[in-house]
Amino acid sequence: MTEAPIAADLLISGATLITMNAERQVIEDGALAVAGDRIVAVGKREALARTVQAKEVVDGRRFVATPGFVDAHIHITGDPLTRGFARGGPDDNWGDKLQKWVIPIFKAQTAEDEKLSAQCAALAMIRYGTTTFVEAGTVCHLDAVMEGLDESGVRGRVGEWVEGRAFNPADDQAKVSAAAIAILESEVERYPDRGGDTRLAAWPILVGHSTNSDDVWRAARRLADERGLRVSAHMSPRAGDPEWFLAQYNRRPLEHLADIGVLGESVMLTHLANIDESELDLLVGAGAGAIHCPHAALQGGFGVSRIGLFPEMLDRGVNLMLGTDGVAADILSSGRLMASLFRDARCDQDLMPAAAVLEMATLNAARAMGMAGDIGSLEAGKKADFVLHDTWLPEWGPVFDAPEQLAFSAPPGGVHSVWIDGVRVLEDGRATLLDEDRILADARQAGRAVIARTKLPNRTSWPVI
Ligand SMILES: [Zn+2]
After folding, report:
1. Is residue 444 situated within a structural domain?
2. d(CA 311, CA 320)
3. Whole-angstrom distance, CA of residue 108 vs CA of residue 111
4. Total number of domains in the chain
5. pTM of the prediction?
6. How far does the centroid of ligand 1 lie from the alpha carbon of residue 271, in Å?
7. How far is the CA of 108 from the centre of ligand 1 (A)?
8. In CATH, what number is assigned to the domain containing residue 386?
9. How far apart are CA 101 and CA 97, in angstroms?
10. How many Å lie between the centroid of ligand 1 and the Cα of residue 5?
């Protein structure tokens, strides 16, 4: 008796698959079958040729296939329309730059601008193989952004900007907290997360640092726990956060978050460059996720090569992920940079091998997001979110060890095609759902208009004549 064939919409045939399954199998001359929005079979090409009946077959012989990558921390509004502009004045420190440049540029954007900005970010992510992202909690016009993202096909979790601390002594802290909590409650209600089948949802994502009162932190955690969501927030990129928490509470940031009952598995914190050993213990004990954004950390001079405890986090089982912070779109180069940096800093060429880089970019983030059953690996039953990396390039040559080559020598622009939810959102390097030329043209115009509204001067590196 022969078994009934597996009905599929699509079969990728002949590719090298980096499955990221429990055995971390790499399948040479492999195949992957998709029905609707899920993967229905993964295996050797010959085996699937016998068992799968597909409506469409894509010749995968020149490709390495991976699960879609996860950018665990990215700003999709603000910067995409005005890159390179917010450099600050000659005497501005980091705080001045934020207050006088970065935030005014954010706030000068209309709903239409933010929609466009989110689409630029989605376009950039997809082009580098990122299929899922966690936004950084700095969206001002959530509805417009969600509309823009929906058109792009990308999977994401997004947070509206809340300001939960009354820095102005004239403001009533209870009222400021209540307003912030109302925003959190409203967004998770309007964009509910029903698990893997929800492509876009809102989470109680906080800007973090010192910008939230204890009541707002606790409310975010409560909403996350009640609804199976995650709290994400910035913390301790520089010494400023520890100094502020020490002055305010006489304890360091993670000590404070643990003390008020916020630190836990449903929390993922970005940067954590300036934590000490006691905070590392708390992170380990709480099972909270940590996100390192190497490009932002290095360009921002956080000092991670000197004081960052990221290798120790990995050693001690902290769920470590990668973010771009919106500084660079490419999650693979972020991983490559992180590994190279810490190998050099610790004089240890075996630190952070390809396996660690690829796990951070896929499985670790999937687990932290509560989506391990849906994304992060190429396995039957998971979402059809995957990437074909073109190996027909001089930087590849023969595929001897696909994970090593992908993590450390493949060119960043080698992504050929991307599927999300079974939909091919990128084909031959071009977006299929978004009109790239229109978006790029509109973004140039909108970016100039935003800067004109801020009245900030353009401080070019060299005289422009
Ligand atoms: Zn950030």
Report:
1. no
2. 10
3. 10
4. 2
5. 0.97
6. 8
7. 19
8. 2.30.40.10
9. 5
10. 47
- Ligand 1 centroid – CA 206 distance (Å): 10
The one-digit pLDDT tens for each residue of the chain (465 residues) are 567 899 999 999 999 999 999 999 999 999 999 999 999 999 999 999 999 999 999 999 999 999 999 999 999 998 899 998 887 777 888 788 888 988 899 889 999 999 999 999 999 999 999 999 999 999 999 999 999 999 999 999 999 999 899 988 899 999 999 999 999 999 999 999 998 899 999 999 999 999 999 999 999 999 999 999 999 999 999 999 999 999 999 999 999 999 999 999 999 999 999 999 999 999 999 999 999 999 999 999 999 999 999 999 999 999 999 999 998 879 999 999 999 999 999 999 999 999 999 999 999 999 999 999 999 999 999 999 999 999 999 999 999 999 999 999 998 889 999 999 999 999 999 999 999 999 999 999 999 999 999 999 888 888 999
**Considering 351, 368, 385, which residue would you say is the last residue of a domain?**
368
Cα of 146 to ligand 1 centre, how many Å? 19
Q: Are residues 60 and 29 in the same domain?
A: yes
How close is the Cα of 49 to the center of ligand 1, in Å?
Answer: 45
Are 272 and 308 members of one domain?
yes
- Helix or strand or coil: residue 69? strand
Indicate which CATH number applies to the domain containing 258: 3.20.20.140
The rounded Å distance from CA 93 to ligand 1 centre is: 17
Identify the domain boundary among 316, 342, 368. 368
172 and 44 co-located in one domain: no
Residue 64: closest CA among 429, 453, 401: 401
For ligand 1, a single-atom ion, the residues with CB < 5 A are: 136, 325
* Residue range(s) defining the domain that contains residue 276: 69-368
- Same domain for 30 and 143: no
| Cα(101)–Cα(108) distance, integer angstroms | 11
Residue 79 DSSP class: G
